Amino acid sequence: MIITKFLITIFVFFALSRVVLRFKESKVSLVALIGWVLLWSSVELIVWIPAAASSVAQILGIGRGADLIIYSSIVILFYLIFRIYVKFEDLERQITQIVQTVALKKQTDKPAGKSSK
Amino acid sequence: MKVLIIVPAYNEEKTIGVILGNLKALKIGEIKKEIVVVNDGSGDQTAKIAAKQNITLLNHVLNRGLGGALQTGFAYAKSRDADFVVTIDSDGQHDPKDIKKLLSPLLEGRADAVIGSRMLEGGKMPIDRRIINYLANLVTYLLWSVWITDTQSGLRAFTINAARKIDIKTNRMEVSSEFAKEIARNHFRVAEVPIRAIYTDYSRQKGQKNANAFNILVKLLIHKFADIK
């Protein structure tokens, strides 16, 4: 059990270092950095002091600490999917803009169609 | 005066020739017309057939969907000296003669945007389409507080000033509801005129799929609540 805890801790530190590096490269905002640090810190807390999850769960009116973890994971995953979806839409729009620019550029290289009554 | 007619087309080799022939034959009094086909990355003969007609052809190197094609059409319109901009489907669903009806509220100065509604004369639309259409109108109303009897209509007309203000962001079929959003955002005076829709197996197959409705709803919600540039 203790080995699992150490492995999770190593992973958490790895994940945190990636977030900090991306923050230093200005690829992640300060708000996102704080969010990720809070998230991974709470993972660490729960790994080493599992009773902490149960106390928070009781405060929130959720039966067990394990349930709290599952519920919050689902919420976080939904949020991340939403973010990816938004990013995807953003990329789609950028591709359209490129395609549009190419189409209009090619047109300006040619004479436009005639107007007719 | 001049009207610019945007015809978005994706794999429409069966119908595009006839549509363009009918559009070219259309007389709208003294109003000149420029027909702009946006070939949306078709893999068939659409571009070749369109290129043989004396029209403006804009080619997308990739398929971007109806919204993407209309964005290109509007971007082109903004650089032209037209007075009105019309959009019409290329699947043969619309009667080009209805364009005259669409332009009259604009010519009379009664409206900035006109939607050709298939719901006003009733009876012709298949029942499943009618239900989906009503739900789409309802969603559009809830999101942007504009009631249009046929938000999904592809036959629309705008004054050039209105067309210049329109900023479409969606790529695919959800663009139809986005026009309602733009009408609301820009406070356009909107008119609806009854039009005749010609439903064939071909146009039904090419048009919106009923099962697509959920996907469209999700995208509209994303665009309502997320800030997509």
From TrEMBL, chain A:
Keywords: Membrane, Transmembrane, Transmembrane helix. This is DUF2304 domain-containing protein. The chain crosses the membrane at residues 6-23, 30-49, 69-86. It comes from the Bacteria. Pfam families: DUF2304.
